[in-house]
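pinging the channel bc i need a second pair of eyes. not urgent but kinda urgent?? the chain im working w is below, pasted from the shared doc
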Amino acid sequence: MNRLQKYFSVILLAGFLISPAFGFASEPPKPAEPAAPPTVTLFHGEECPHCLAEREFLKDLKKEIPGLEVVEYEVWHDEKNRKLFLDTAKKLNIKGLAVPLTIVGDQYLIGFDKPENSGEKIRRMIENLETGTASLGASGEGESVNLPFLGEVKIESLSLPLLSVVLGTLDGFNPCSMWALLVLLTLVIATGSRKKVWLVGGVFILTSAVSYFLFMAAWLNAFIFLGYLSFVQFAIGAAAVVAGVISIREFYKFKPNVCEVSTPEQQKKLSERIKKVLRSASLPMMLLGVVAIAFSVNLVELLCSLGIPVIFTKTLTMYNLAAWKYYGYIGLYDFFYMLDDIIVLAIAGFSMKFFLFNSAYSRWSRLVAGVLMLTLGIIFLFKPELLMLGS
């Protein structure tokens, strides 16, 4: 064997020995480990009809998707599950909670209407998790209906504006705040200054609107923080029932332009205070006095009709809304709450005459408000899911 043949043999042997490193004689590749089955987590309420519909859908979906795991947590009657519900929502930065809440990975869906709509979204969430593609995004999807010319409209967009208008209007026909405004306008009209009527009346109404908005915003945030405690919902329902019964009783024992929260002595003191403020030589000091009076009157007003704003703000928290929408609905409620005062000021400002709504409006509004609060209170106590049309 010549030298060239020796070199060739050595190279061939070396190639044979190191070939496993390049796969020529490697072991067969191990099969890839199967991916973990997708998991759907559902937070639901026992009596919630939307939740029941989704649970039935998920049973069928488990048969359709092999290995699909569904984990359910009932949150209306189980304190431990409710805490997990809140902790999970906080982790995913979910605002305005409602059930059913469906979570797949880091995606979530609030509400369930029908398999063809919400069900398809859940399927896409599962596909997104399995393929690692872009998610649906963190968003709440409510029940919707198809309307002629308008197309698909969420039920919440129908129910909440209507509820805001109706409850705000009924709350507005209240003698406590109206009485103070009428005393104020009567005294200002006597001065003969149209400009003063608009200025003083406008400041009073604006302050009343802002203060009432702030009171309701405080209720809203309290219910967002505590509203999922079962005893809170029970207390609100019971209070609404009591407030409704009282309002119906006031319909039968109605006294025109009488605020039953403040006594005649307190009203007399307030009247003297208004006169003193209007006699102020300094316009800024007079307006500051009007602001203080309006704020104090609305504290009384809140006691005079506590049930309606409490029911309204608690109902708002049962919808999945952005923060600006919560305050937008409170603003809509607030506008219709102040509407009767605005009408009274407009008539006084243009005609320089005293005007008073027919007491029949106020009396019948007590009956309507009472029946409405009684109904809502009973729903809160026994069928709260009926108020979750937008969930």
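so Residues 154-387 form one domain. and DSSP finds 13 helices and six strands in the chain. — does that match what u expected or am i reading it wrong
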